[in-house]
Specification:
three-stranded antiparallel beta sheet, globular, single chain, about 210 residues
């Protein structure tokens, strides 16, 4: 089920669109199908696509001419995640912790010179022989798409959220509302009714507090 919402730049509320239910795993092609259901009057007003960074998300943003804002939470979890406590405590733990600190700075700094310095530092850390391979891969991808994580700073007037947590928190509520449904059609109908009644969710932009001052 593909759940979407739209948020005006001047608001801290996001308004649900009707969900889309498609067979198969999440993919670029299925996201294109889901987005094709957007009413044209809404689609014409969209400037930014906020995503968790699923495969093909950047291409979708490019195809529509949208600014792409990647979710910070998903990035940090990808850098932290490891199977089991024992494997999490690897020899490369000090390198991993340093990289996490650098990544957090890269996500938030507004100083261009300091930004460049931290990029150089991150590249040096991932070349360290004790840098865990999964950390190296994630960091290389992060540096390659850095502006996608910093769109909220590049375009402060758009008041962009930096996570998809608000919309993803709806998943649990939808599962509860559709828990007794027995067919795909009934699941979709119940989810649609539920979201239409709920209407909106709180979705604060990262810079909303500063913009209001």
């Amino acid at each position: 089920m593909y759940v979407m919402a739209v948020k005006p730049a001047s608001s801290s509320k996001a308004y649900y669109l009707d969900p889309v239910l498609l067979s198969g795993k999440e993919s670029y092609d299925r996201w294109r199908q889901a987005l094709a259901t957007l009413p044209q009057r809404i689609k014409k007003q969209v400037l930014t696509f906020v995503s968790d960074g699923f495969r093909g998300s950047k291409l979708i943003a490019k195809e529509h001419g949208w600014i792409h804002q990647r979710c910070h939470f998903h990035l940090l979890m990808a850098l932290i995640r490891r199977h089991g406590r024992r494997s999490y405590r690897t020899r490369g733990t000090p390198i991993r912790e340093k990289l996490l600190g650098v990544v957090r700075i890269l996500l938030t700094t507004t100083d261009d010179r300091f930004l460049l310095h931290q990029v150089i530092k991150a590249k040096r850390l991932i070349r360290h022989p004790l840098c865990p391979p999964w950390i190296r891969i994630q960091t290389v991808e992060f540096l390659r798409t850095l502006n996608d994580f910093r769109a909220y700073l590049i375009y402060p007037e758009l008041n962009l959220p930096t996570t998809t947590n608000s919309i993803e928190s709806s998943g649990k509520l939808i599962r509860k509302a559709t828990g007794t449904a027995r067919t795909p059609r009934s699941v979709l109908l119940r989810a649609t009714v539920f979201l239409r009644l709920k209407k909106l969710i709180t979705c604060n932009g990262k810079l909303s507090t500063k913009l209001c001052q």
